[in-house]
Structure formats: structure tokens, C-alpha cells
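Q: How would the C-alpha cells look for this protein?
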Amino acid sequence: MSVYSGNQPPESCTRIIGDTGPVEAVAAPDGPCSDGSARTMDHFWDPGHLAAVFFAVAAGAALVMAARRRPGRWRDWLCVALGIALIVNQTADSFRWVWEHNGSIRYDLPLNLCDLAAYVAGIALIVRRGWWVETAYFWGIGGTTMGLLFPDVVLHALSYAYLEYYVDHVGVVLAALLLVAGLGLLPAAGAYRRICATTFGYAALVGLFDLLAGANYFNLRARAAAGSLTPLGILSPWPWYLVEMAPVVLLALLILDMPFRHEEEAPTPASIAGAAAT
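A: Here is the predicted structure in C-alpha cell form.
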């Protein structure tokens, strides 16, 4: 059986080969990532990567300040436009994968966290309610940001794949910042429990699908390529990195929830009045 690192198809740059289960990824000896035909983004902090990160920081700060200082209908239109853009971008990329790789369920379904986060963030921007906003915030800041800072794919600069990747990742991060910091749609009481249940429940479902289909969505059956600079690449071999990641995810979600815990504990006017009456 062969599966591929990071849900990449056979012609991509990393490959995992095993007869009984996942093993570590190895670099493919030949292919589109080593032909030298175009400048590729095969390491971190090259100009293309830096430009995307800088744009995310600058645009995020500008959006949050503008939304807080200048409320108005423009915020509604911006949210809807960005939400539609995220959904269309992710859907178009899914169809592209199906078209280019013959529609294999092992590679072409939008089951990775960043793929689903794009849909969740897009819907959250349009409806701006409850669970959608909370999930967009936790997955966007806690998950998609990692994909923005540590991309585990090789991208030809300014290619469609490059643009799609960063529209997706930058867009989700901007959505999370705009919704929570810009519009003030804060996670409600119990958000930490809900997002933990959602995240680990989804991971369990994807893990079952990976097992049945021989896929590697969510990097659950093989970690990043050996020597990768992504956080996943420095962990232990499969399956031990799954055990190591669980407390890391729980801690990261807890840290993201902490700024809003005082909102749950702060006394409300009604509770103050009730206490005074007694």
C-alpha cells in the first residue's frame, strides 16, 4: 500500500511507502519539485512566503482597527464578500484537484483542517453566529495560522496553487480576526469544551476515513517529510506523534480561550442587582 504525505498525489514531492502501515515520508527523487523549471517555495521565509505573512499581519491589523473605529454597513458587505471568496476559492481548488488527479478520494476531498476551516470561516462571515464564529476563531488562529507560518507544500511562486493556498490561509486568519477582534463576536461560555469536542470528533472521523481509504488527510497516518521544518516534522515517528499532539492541541485551544474566560466570570448588571437586594 502506498499513501502520500500531507494528502499529496503521487507526482508531488514527498512520498510515503509502506506495506503494513504508515512510515516516514521520503523525498521523491524526481518530479515537478526538482526540475528547476521555476522558482519554487520549498523552504520557509523565501520572498513569496514572507510577502504572504506580511500581508496577513498588515491586513489583519487594518481590518480590525477599521471595523472597530468605523462601524457601518460596509462591515456587513465586507464579511459577505470575504465569506463568498473563501468558499469559492476552496471549492474551485477542490474541483481542480479532481480534474488534475482523476478524482481520487485519497487525495482530492477537502477533508484537511485548513480546507474545512475555509468553509467554516466563510459561513461564519456570512451568518455571524455562535458555533460558526467560535470554530472559525479557534481553527483559524490555532490551526490555519500554522499552515500560513509553516507551509508543508511546495509552491511555484505566483502560480494558481500559490495564490489559492494563501487566499485560503490568509483569508481564514483575517476572518477570525475580523469576527472576534473587529466585530466583537466573542466565544460564548463553554466554547473550550465545544471546540475540543468538535476538533477531536472530526479528527476521529477523518482518521477512520483515512484507514478505510488508504489516505492521509489531517496527517493522521504519516507525519510531514523527514527533516521538515513544520512543527509536525520534529515530532516522533507514527503513531507516537499523534499522542504527542493531543496535549499540544488541548493547550493551544485553552490559550486561545483564556482571553474570554473573564467574560464568563465577570458579574452582570442583573447579578449585581440581585446581590444588592439580598
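The beta strands are 2-3, 14-17, 26-27, 40-41, 155-156.

The CA atoms of residues 192 and 258 lie 9 Å apart.

Upvote if useful.
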